[in-house]
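Lecture notes, unit on protein representations.

Consider one protein chain, 299 amino acids long.
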Amino acid sequence: MDILITGGTVFVSRFAAGYFRALGHTVAVLNRGTRPQEPGVELIRADRHALTGRLRHRHFDAVLDITAYTRNDVETLHRELGEFGTYILISSSAVYPETTPRPFVERSQTGLNSIWGSYGTDKIRAERYVLENIPGGYILRPPYLCGRLNNLYRESFVFECAAAGRPFYLPEGGGPELQFFDVEDLCRFMAVLVEKRPERRVFNVGDPGTVTSSEWVELCYAPFGRAPEFKYVSRDVPLRSYFPFAGYTYELDVSAMSELMPDTKPLPRSMAESLESCTAFPGELRRKPLIQFIDENLA
């Protein structure tokens, strides 16, 4: 197939470019060309909001829109596309208000999530454009993404604590339960959609269950041959100052996804692969001053 991927240089979009290229597809990536590109892909060097006809003569069997955050992002790209087959928007489970009963199902009401604010409401507007204007377009709502090339300071933060033999700080009560989805499984499911073209247009995607914060930390410490020493922090201390996740539980019902793709990568394997990437590409990480805050205020 001929596939267009928006982005192609960081985490999900970069992994997707390499993944589909390795399967033998022809892959074009749309980005500004300011970062290294995956080998073997075609770079369409442009801003997605200033394409001026660059795509109108092209045909793509699939458009994987991984870097759209707003309705305008989707609309301006859609208007510039020529002929295309399957369109897939990577949205977010932030479209569900945190007060919605869990697990979130695709028919649950979307709306403002006070944790994510405009990020979630902008994704809702992007979704609506797809549903109203792109026949057969698909919307995927993942929880926390993980795995290879993850440049977000989540498991990489825990790896740094484990490597240094540091204790790990959790909020009183143990912290939220967490749901993940490996980036390779996300790509596998996009391939399933392109192949099978199901009638359903909106899918929650993710592992079929959650883990506790402490279980997740233990998985991240395990490759170092260590078990974490947990220390617990008063709820008066802002959670995000020392912990990489918000203080509430994402829990998605992914049964519709599982009907089409019943198996997902085990979380321990995903964490091990993420560690490999952190070791290979340390300069890619978007570090936050969590350890500094811990040393100055908690240790």
